[in-house]
Amino acid sequence: MCGISGFLSATASGRSQFLLAAARSLNHRGPDGHGIWNPEGPIGLAHRRLAIVDLSDAGAQPMSSADGRWVVTFNGEIYNHRQLREQLSDGRSSAWRGHSDTEVLVDAIARFGVVETLRRCNGMFAIAAWDREASELWLARDSTGEKPLYVGWVGGGVAFASELRALRAHRAWAGGVDQEALAWMLTFGYVPAPLSIHPGVFKLPAGCCLALRPGDERRAPTANEFKARLERWWRLDELADSASTPDERMSGIEALDRLDALLDDAVDLRMQADVPVAAMLSGGVDSTLVVSSMVRRAPGSVRTFTVAFDEPGVDEAAHAAAVARSLGTLHEEVRCPAGAALALVDRLPDIYDEPFADPAQIPAVLVSEAIRQQVPVALTGDGGDELFEGYQRHLDAIAWWRVMGRLGVRGRTSVGSTLRRLSDLLPAGSASRASGRLGARLAAEDFDDYYRRVLQFPESAALGLHAARRLGMPSPPAGLVALGARMRFVDQMLGLPEGIHTKLDRASMSAGLELRVPFLDPRIQALSWQLPANSHAGAGTGKLWLRRLLARRMPGGVAKRRKQGFDVPIGEWLRGPLRPWAMELLSEKGDFLPSRTHVEQVWAAHLVGRRDATYAMWAVLSYLAWARRHG
């Protein structure tokens, strides 16, 4: 795991200074070493190293291919590098220099080309590869967007890096705020690719690559021009299309056997390292399954960590300890006092570097910092909810619509209007809020309208699909009609790369910790779409396939546990200990917000309990805190 940066320009003037400054700004992502490749010519590459595989100098970057044609700097891990090495060894004329995955990656590019190599890789990555023969720069991001990559037109050249802070290190940096990106951020809580918060700077979308040549640096493209230049080497719509024609020949037992074997192999690949590897264990279904696979491979020696919080809504320490005892792991509980989360708030704009507003970012940072004191690599159970329909909002939406669909549009509209009028007549309080919410639900014309009204915007299927069209992302295949499948598509296309992965990448990398996510092995993701669309949730329970697998491995109550969100009580904190911080941000002068009056009205309603505006206000305040630092 590392931090990468580089600069494509017509002249080398000022490039060395930028590469040094950019690499220095990414020290936290790679505390074990650095390298710069800056020959005479149009390109320079820089790298910060977190040494995980091949700790020797043979694993240092930037790295050239054996034939000298390609030079690569990359951030991430290629988990199947040993299998690729065997393929490349056939007919190879020179000896391998070491056993790093970087050497395999750059030589695979030399043998197969960039796009074919990406399709052969099982891993997480952001890659910059320079073709010295063709004078062409390739930038690429992994299929689900685990690793970030920004590219921007700065100071007469094209700069790229793992984080925006590296681009800001250029002496010609102008800054500014892209208003379309800000609008999406205030809607979703994050800036979706290909936009970034800064004009003229873009995020490479998940599953995409971009080829640049000398001369491309002369003019910054518009967002539409940038989107038009992208090549999708991986497409979620093609993968999800298999949901339209699932493999009906595969029985339930066969599917479970296949999932069982794939998870074991995915975990095995992600345990390969030359440093200690541990796991985050919450005691929930997903992390318990990952740890159970680890124990199968290394019984009696698996280390697990749980961070215990004073806040009862996020403390899962007791559940995790019970699972650890059952599995026989070397378990450690790290307690974070109540004040630790509050003290972290001022650091978030620097950790996340771009406006980001998921309250779970706070415990994510605290967990990462605690684990990094013990080990440099940890496996997590993330991705299970997105692949196997595990969020409670999915279940609630389907259950509500199953009832409301029977009323018809006219009946729903009539009852909904009455309830909303009633909410205006009732005194401010829980009864008024409940009546208004129920009225909004019943007034929906169709399922997409209902889903948009009742659920928070980041998870809205209707808004998510609208955003995807605006942002140039693939649309779901026509045969994808099951409600749960459509929601999973939005989760994997939008929320997973720019929400979940942004939260985890910045939190872990701020502490120099590498997180690995077995559920996002491409083979498991493919299997999740091949299962019957209506088999993922039922009877008020999601992730049925994962629960069945866990019940097979650990008979008992763990498989029946209801999902507990990894969250903190931000809403209450904003009315209490964080109120002075919020008031100070909201009182600052400046044109930071599109509608200050509206924000002030929402804030006032939240303070007196007339409205729960936790997520809306956290998005606004996160942006204001970022703007104070970087805007």
How large is the share of residues in beta strands?
A: 5-15%
- The helix fraction, in percent, is 40-55%
The largest sheet is: 6 strands, antiparallel
Mean pLDDT: 87
Unreliable stretches: 454-460
Overall structural class, as computed from helix and strand content, comes to: alpha+beta
Counted up, domains total 3
CATH topology of the largest domain: Glutamine Phosphoribosylpyrophosphate, subunit 1, domain 1
State the CATH architecture of the largest domain: 4-Layer Sandwich
CATH class (first level) name of the largest domain: Alpha Beta
CATH level-4 homologous superfamily of the largest domain: Aminohydrolase, N-terminal nucleophile (Ntn) domain
Distance between the termini: 28 Å
Strand order in space, largest sheet: 2-3-1-9-8-10
User: How many helix segments?
Assistant: 27
- C-alpha Rg (nearest Å): 24 Å
Care to count the β-strands?
Answer: 17
General form? globular
Organism: Luteimonas rhizosphaericola
Pfam families: Asn_synthase, GATase_6
Enzyme class: ligase
GO molecular function: asparagine synthase (glutamine-hydrolyzing) activity
